[in-house]
Amino acid sequence: MQNRIQELRKSHKMTQAELADVLEVTRQTIISLEKGKYNASLFLAHDIAEFFGLSIEEVFIFEGGHINVEETIRETKARHE
Amino acid sequence: MQNRIQELRKSHKMTQAELADVLEVTRQTIISLEKGKYNASLFLAHDIAEFFGLSIEEVFIFEGGHINVEETIRETKARHE
DNA sequence: ATTAAAAGTAAAGTTTACTATACTTTTTTG
DNA sequence: CAAAAAAGTATAGTAAACTTTACTTTTAAT
């Protein structure tokens, strides 16, 4: 999963330490998120998006995996019969 | 944090086992999320929202904590000078 | 009323987000 | 260029999301 944290942080002219401080996480967390070492929790994702005035989906890019809902439901239901 | 998983699952006439199967998690996970025992990861939150054709923010209700962005930036920057 | 299906509980184990600390490298600025 | 600020690396530890298994309670169907 990709994210626009670094880009958004820079456009707000903030350092990693400042962003970490605002979000009440450590600088390590910001570095790791920007570097893609791991993914934010739902809470932190929400706080980041809210801080930048965006939706979670606008900050975090979830690639692939577009499910055909109707088909998936049919298949899954069949599997459970 | 609240979520609308149970409501959405029922409106799709699915059991917990079926939803778990579709989302490729265990039934325990669905039960625990519906019961509010813990929060979904960002990944799972995305998969759930996508499955129901909604945004993460439409499925998960993040209460409180509305930050005044400009003020927070000013304060935080001051703290870092 | 029985039975079966669905929902729920409990607890131990794994994985991963996040912290804390300490040190190194890169970038910025005077 | 030199100093300071910012960014990055590494690693051990904690917390919480998620799994696995096994058993109990509630709801639905006949």
Helices and strands, with pairings:
Two copies of one chain form a homodimer.
Chain A: E1 2-3, H1 5-11, H2 16-23, H3 27-34, H4 42-51, H5 56-59, E2 60-61, H6 69-79
Antiparallel strand pairs in A: 1-2
Helix pairs in contact in A: 2-3
Chain A binds a DNA duplex (30 and 30 nucleotides) through α3.
Tell me about this structure:
The structure is a homodimer of 81-residue chains. Chain A is mainly α. Chain A has one domain (2-79): Orthogonal Bundle (434 Repressor (Amino-terminal Domain)). Chain A is 59% helix and 5% strand. The first copy, chain A, has 6 helices and 2 strands; from the N terminus they run E-H-H-H-H-H-E-H. Chain A has helices at 5-11, 16-23, 27-34, 42-51, 56-59, 69-79; strands spanning 2-3, 60-61. In chain A, helix 2 (16-23) crosses helix 3. Chain A is elongated. Chain A binds a DNA duplex (30 and 30 nucleotides) through helix 3.
List keywords for this structure.
81 residues, mainly alpha, 434 Repressor (Amino-terminal Domain), elongated
Short précis:
Chain A is 59% helix and 5% strand. Chain A has 81 residues and is mainly α.
